[in-house]
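FW: tagging you since you asked about this chain on Friday. Here's the raw sequence from the shared folder, copied in full. Didn't touch anything.
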Amino acid sequence: MTLETASLFLADAAATAALAGRIAPLLRAGDTILLEGDIGAGKTTFARALIRARLGREEEVPSPTFTLVQTYEDPEAEIWHCDLYRLTSPDEILELGLDAAFEEGICLIEWPDRLGATAPCEALKLTISLEGEGRLASFDGSSSWIERLRNGGALG
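HL: got it, structure written out here
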């Protein structure tokens, strides 16, 4: 598998939401996005906007910091929004049912470093970092992921 990278500057939260809105229709069952970045970088903002865009409605999307997992019914695949910050061992991943979600759902994983070796090898990694007054969204994934993002208009 060939890995590629792409980056995009996001001026504000609205630009982060717009990016999520462009990616949402490109996702399909079995897709996982690993959301990395410091606290406050915009991971949850991105996930909220993607879920709302995918569902096509204004949905309450609470942070899963305390529940660990929030799920949403999508006609094509259940959406799993996970915040793994509080996990202490990759063994806890199995207890959450993420192994099945990786195969059948659309997964948005905050703090994916907690996955250890259980992280799906075909996942797209999105790192959001502070960049001046805005954010830098950096994508790392297979060439097919990056091509899908480019062809679908997600990268501008």
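FW: The mean pLDDT is 92.
HL: agreed, and The longest strand covers residues 134-142.
FW: great, closing this out.
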